[in-house]
From TrEMBL:
InterPro entries: CHAT_dom, TPR-like_helical_dom_sf, TPR_rpt. It comes from the Bacteria. Residues 635-884 form the CHAT domain. This is CHAT domain-containing protein. Pfam families: CHAT.
Length: 885
C-alpha cells in the first residue's frame, strides 16, 4: 500500500522526533525542512511532529530558549486541532524541558495532562511520561521512589530504545547515589548497549554516567580516564560540555586536584547559565561552592551556597537544598561565624539526606553538626551528632567511609580518650593508605594524603600528650612522604605510549621556542604558552589514568634500624601541632621530644631570607654588603628558633645530623644552620633507604656524567674543570646536551653533575624542569626512568626546593630522584651566582670522587666559601645535601 503525502509527512515527523534525541545536531536540518513542508501542506499533525522534532534538536544541545516556544506552539496547535495523542506527546516533551528549566510544578502539570490524553492510546509516549515522572522524583531526591519507577518501566517488553536507554542510565545513577555500586555498573552497562541503537548523543551521555558512577564507586583514576573518553564522545556528538564539566569536577575534587576541579566547575556554571538550564546550573553552582570552600574561599562559598539554596527551593528539590545548607554551614564554620542555629540547619539537612538515601552526604551533615556543637562548647551535643555520623556513613569506597572515620576520632578527642583517638586515627589512615596506594601516579598519591591531614594531626596531638618520643616519631613517619615511598617500590617506568612520546617531543619543541624568546628579551607569544600548557596537561593527564600502579610497599625500617644506620649521627624530625613546631631528636642512646614554638615566628624569617638570597646575585657591591648582613641576621634567627632549642650534645654536629623538615622548613638553609655535615630527607624511612641499599642492589659506581645546559656562560667551563676531577667522564655541552642524550647518559651513571637553568613549578610540580639544549628535562620524565644516578649534583637554581602538599607530601626533583634510587643529592634552594662558585664545585667533586657521602663532601666544600663575601654567600647558604650516599 502506498502512503499518501500527508501520511508520509506525519511518519517522517515522528521518526525525526525520535532520531533527534540520539543525533540532535545531525537531525536539525531535516527537522527544519520538514517543518516548512508541513506548514506549506497545512498538515497540523505533521506540523506538531516537526515542531517536536526541531525542539528535541535544540534541547539536545541545551538550547532551551529556542526549544521552549516550539513546544508551546506544538501543544497549542495540537489542542486546537483536537489531536489528543499528538498533544500528549508534545506535553510530555514540554514537561521534560520545563523540568530542565527547574519549573518542576509546571513540568508535573504537563505530565499529568499528557498522561490523561495518552491513556488508552498504547503510544510509546506513555512510557515517556512515566520516565519523566521517575526523573522528577530522581531530581527531587526521592531516590527510592525513582528507583522503583525506573525499575517498573524497564520491566516493560515493548519500550522504545531511547526510553530504555534513558531509564537504565538514570537507574544506574540512582543506584550509585544509594551506594549500590555493583547494581549501578550493571544498569549502566545495559544502558551503554542500548544507546548504540539510539545515537551518538546517548552513547556520549551514558559514557559520562559510567565515568561518574566509576568515581562514586571509589575507582577514581579509572573514572577520570572514562571522563576523558566521554569528552571525546560529547564533542563527536556536537553536544555542549557544561553538564560533563560539572560531573568531571566531582572526580577531580575526589582526587584533590582542586584547582583543576574548580576551573571545571566554573566552566560548567558559565556554560549552563548561558544556556539557561537552571536545573543543572544550580547543581554546578553548588559544586563550585564546595570547591571554593576546599580551596580556602569560605566567604565566597557561603555566598554561592546561600544563593543556590533559594533557587533549589523554587525547584522543589529538598535533598539538594539540604546539600546546599550543609555547604553554607561548613563555610560559616571555616570562617568562625557558625552558631547554635547552624547545628539545627545541619541536623535538618542530615535528616532530609538520610530520607533520600544519600547516606554519605547525610553522614557528612551529622559530622558538620557535631563540629558546630563542639565549636560552640556543647560537648554532649557534639558527641551525639558525631555518633550519628559514624552510624550513618555507609560501607563502601574509602571516601564514603571518611565521615565515619573522622567522627569516631572526634568523639574520642572530645572524651579525652587519647588511646581510642590514636586507634581511630590509625584505622582511618590505614584506610586512606590502601586508597592512596591504588592510585597510578606519584602526584595523585601525594595529593590523596590531604584526605588524612586532620586524622594525622589529631593522632599526633594525642601521642605528644601521652606517648613516648619514639611513638611520636613513628607517627610522624606514618604521615609523610608516602607518595615517594610508593614510587620507590620498584621499577615503575613502564612503556611510554606512542601518543605520549609524540606529546613529549612536541612539548620539548615548544619549550625551546619559549626559552629562545625569553633569552632574546622578547614577549613569549600567548599562543605558544597556551600550547605549552595544553601539552603539559595532556602528558600529566595520561599519568593520572595510565601510570603504573603501586607495588608492594617495602617494610618500614623501624626506629632501631634507623638508629643503627645513623652510626653516631643524630636524626631530627619536625612536625607542626596546633600551629607550633615540635621535633623528635633521635640519638644513639635515646630520643627526646622538643617543643620549639609557633611556626608563625619561623615562616616570616624564611620568607625574608629567601627574598634576600634571590637579590644577592645581581646586587651591586655596596648593596651586597647590606644584603649579606640581612642574610646572616636571618640565618642566626632561624638557628635560634629551630636548632638551638634542640640542645644537641657537644660533638653531635661534628658527627653529622639528619634532618627531616616539615612544610616551609623544606626551604631552610640547613647547611648554614648546623655546624657540621647535615643531610636532609623527606622522611626518616626514605633517608634509611639511601643509607642501606636494597639487598642485592649493585654498589659498583657507574660512569660520571657532566652536563652543561644552555644560557649559562659559566657552565661549559664548570664541567671542563670537573672533567679533570673525573677522568673519563661523559661530558655534554650545548648543543649536544639534548634531553634525549642526557636521559641516555644518566641511565646507570654513578655520579651526575647538571649545570643548568632550573625552574620549580608551584602550579604543576611534576613539570619543574632543568633547561637542556632542546627543551626541558622534567620531574615527570625522571619519574619514568628505570635508573637514575647513584649521586647527583643539581647545580641549578631553586630545584632543591620542592612543592609541599597537605599531608606532608613533597613533590619535586629531590624527592623524585631519591624515590627512584638516588642515594645522595646536592642541590640549591635558591638563586646562586654561578660565576663565583667554581672553587666550591671543584672541592665538592673532589670529596665525592674520594668516596665521601654527599653531606660530608658538601660540608668540606663549604669551607672554601667566604660567608662574608656577598658573591659566595648565596652558595654558602643555599646548597643542601639530601640522602646518605
Amino acid at each position: 500500500m502506498v502512503e499518501d503525502a500527508a501520511d508520509t509527512l506525519l511518519i517522517r515527523g515522528q521518526r525525526l522526533a525520535d532520531a533527534a534525541r540520539g543525533d540532535p545536531v545531525g537531525t536539525c536540518g531535516a527537522a527544519q525542512a520538514l517543518l516548512a513542508q508541513a506548514r506549506a501542506a497545512h498538515d497540523d499533525d505533521a506540523v506538531v511532529q516537526a515542531l517536536r522534532a526541531l525542539a528535541e534538536c535544540h534541547r539536545g544541545v541545551l538550547d532551551l530558549r529556542r526549544a521552549a516556544p516550539l513546544l508551546d506552539e506544538a501543544v497549542r496547535l495540537a489542542g486546537r486541532a483536537r489531536l489528543d495523542e499528538a498533544q500528549g506527546e508534545a506535553l510530555a516533551a514540554r514537561g521534560a524541558l520545563r523540568h530542565e528549566q527547574g519549573r518542576t510544578r509546571a513540568a508535573a502539570r504537563d505530565l499529568d495532562r499528557a498522561a490523561a490524553l495518552l491513556r488508552g492510546h498504547g503510544t510509546p509516549a506513555a512510557a515517556e511520561v512515566d520516565l519523566q515522572r521517575a526523573a522528577l522524583a530522581h531530581n527531587a531526591g526521592r531516590l527510592h521512589e525513582a528507583s522503583a519507577r525506573y525499575t517498573a518501566l524497564l520491566r516493560r517488553p515493548d519500550l522504545a530504545p531511547v526510553v530504555r536507554t534513558r531509564a537504565a542510565n538514570n537507574l544506574g545513577l540512582v543506584q550509585s547515589r544509594l551506594g549500590r555500586h555493583a547494581s549501578a555498573v550493571a544498569w549502566l552497562e545495559r544502558a551503554s548497549r542500548a544507546a548504540v541503537h539510539v545515537g551518538d548523543a546517548y552513547v556520549a551521555s551514558v559514557a559520562a554516567s559510567r565515568a561518574w558512577a566509576t568515581v562514586q564507586a571509589g575507582r577514581l583514576a579509572e573514572g577520570v580516564g572514562r571522563f576523558d573518553e566521554a569528552a571525546r564522545l560529547w564533542e563527536k556528538a556536537g553536544m555542549p560540555l557544561g553538564e560533563l564539566y560539572a560531573e568531571h569536577a566531582d572526580a577531580l575534587a575526589d582526587l584533590r586536584l582542586l584547582p583543576e576541579a574548580y576551573e571545571r566547575a566554573r566552566a560548567a556554571v558559565a556554560a549552563l547559565e548561558a544556556a539557561e538550564v537552571p536545573l543543572l546550573a544550580a547543581e554546578a553552582r553548588l559544586r563550585l561552592a564546595r570547591l571554593a570552600l576546599a580551596t580556602g574561599r569560605a566567604t565566597a562559598a557561603e555566598a554561592v551556597a546561600r544563593d543556590t539554596v533559594a533557587e533549589l527551593r523554587d525547584q522543589r528539590r529538598p535533598d539538594w537544598v539540604a546539600r546546599a545548607d550543609v555547604v553554607a554551614v561548613r563555610a560559616r564554620l571555616a570562617a568562625g561565624t557558625a552558631g547554635a542555629r547552624d547545628r539545627v540547619v545541619a541536623l535538618r539537612a542530615a535528616a532530609a539526606l538520610r530520607r533520600s538515601g544519600a547516606l554519605t552526604e547525610a553522614a557528612e551533615a551529622y559530622l558538620v553538626a557535631g563540629r558546630v556543637a563542639a565549636a560552640d562548647g556543647d560537648r554532649d551535643a557534639a558527641v551525639h551528632d558525631l555518633a550519628r555520623a559514624a552510624d550513618t556513613a555507609p560501607r563502601g569506597p574509602v571516601l564514603a567511609r571518611a565521615p565515619a572515620r573522622a567522627a569516631r576520632a572526634l568523639v574520642a578527642s572530645l572524651g579525652g580518650d587519647d588511646a581510642a583517638l590514636v586507634r581511630a586515627c590509625r584505622a582511618g589512615l590505614a584506610d586512606l593508605a590502601r586508597h592512596r596506594d591504588s592510585l597510578p601516579s606519584t602526584e595523585l598519591r601525594a595529593l590523596a594524603a590531604g584526605h588524612g591531614a586532620e586524622l594525622a594531626a589529631l593522632g599526633l596531638g594525642a601521642l605528644v600528650r601521652t606517648g613516648t618520643p619514639t611513638q611520636v616519631l613513628r607517627w610522624m613517619e606514618r604521615t609523610r612522604a608516602n607518595a615517594l615511598a610508593a614510587t620507590a617500590r620498584g621499577d615503575e617506568a613502564g612503556e611510554a605510549t606512542e601518543a605520549g612520546e609524540v606529546d613529549l617531543v612536541a612539548l620539548h619543541e615548544v619549550q625551546v621556542a619559549v626559552a629562545a624568546a625569553r633569552s632574546r628579551g622578547r614577549v613569549v607569544p600567548p599562543a605558544l604558552l597556551v600550547r605549552q600548557r595544553s601539552l603539559e596537561e595532556r602528558v600529566r593527564g595520561r599519568a593520572w589514568v595510565a601510570g603504573n600502579g603501586a607495588r608492594t610497599r617495602p617494610g618500614e625500617p623501624g626506629v632501631t634500624r634507623v638508629r643503627e644506620a645513623l652510626a653516631g649521627r643524630v636524626l631530627v624530625e619536625y612536625d607542626v601541632l596546633d600551629g607550633d613546631l615540635v621535633a623528635v631528636v633521635l640519638e644513639q642512646r635515646g630520643s627526646r621530644l622538643v617543643r620549639l614554638g609557633p611556626l608563625d615566628e619561623v615562616e616570616p624569617v624564611l620568607d625574608d631570607l629567601r627574598v634576600t638570597l634571590r637579590a644577592l646575585p645581581t646586587a651591586v657591591p655596596a648593596m651586597g654588603e647590606v644584603l649579606g648582613g640581612l642574610v646572616h641576621r636571618s640565618v642566626g634567627r632561624l638557628r635560634d628558633l629551630v636548632v638551638a632549642p634542640l640542645d644537641l650534645p657537644v660533638g653531635t654536629a661534628a658527627a653529622g645530623v639528619v634532618v627531616v623538615p616539615v612544610g616551609a622548613l623544606q626551604r631552610a638553609p640547613w647547611s648554614a644552620l648546623v655546624d657540621g655535615p647535615v643531610s636532609v630527607a623527606p622522611s626518616a624511612a626514605l633517608w634509611w633507604r639511601t643509607a642501606v641499599p636494597a639487598t642485592g642492589a649493585p654498589d659498583v659506581p657507574g660512569p660520571t656524567v657532566l652536563v652543561a645546559g644552555p644560557g649559562l656562560a659559566a657552565a661549559p667551563a664548570e664541567v671542563a674543570v670537573l672533567a679533570d676531577v673525573h677522568p673519563g667522564a661523559t661530558v655534554l655541552v650545548p648543543p649536544d646536551s639534548t634531553s634525549s642524550a642526557v636521559r641516555r647518559a644518566l641511565d646507570g651513571a654513578g655520579l651526575a653533575h647538571l649545570a643548568c637553568h632550573g625552574e620549580v613549578r608551584a602550579d604543576n610540580p611534576q613539570f619543574s624542569s632543568l633547561r637542556l639544549s632542546d627543551g626541558d628535562l622534567t620531574v615527570h620524565e625522571l619519574e619514568g626512568r628505570s635508573h637514575v644516578p647513584r649521586r647527583i649534583v643539581l647545580a641549578a637554581c631553586d630545584v632543591g626546593a620542592g612543592v609541599v602538599h597537605p599531608g606532608n607530601e613533597l613533590l619535586g626533583f629531590v624527592g623524585t630522584l631519591l624515590a627512584r634510587g638516588a642515594r645522595g643529592i646536592v642541590a640549591s634552594t635558591t638563586l646562586v651566582a654561578d660565576a663565583h662558585v667554581l672553587p666550591f664545585v671543584r672541592s665538592l667533586h673532589a670529596g665525592l670522587a674520594a668516596g665521601l657521602p654527599v653531606a660530608e663532601a658538601l660540608h668540606g666544600a663549604r669551607q672554601v666559601l667566604d660567608p662574608d663575601d656577598p658573591r659566595t654567600l648565596g652558595a654558602w647558604a643555599a646548597f643542601t645535601a639530601y640522602g646518605a650516599g
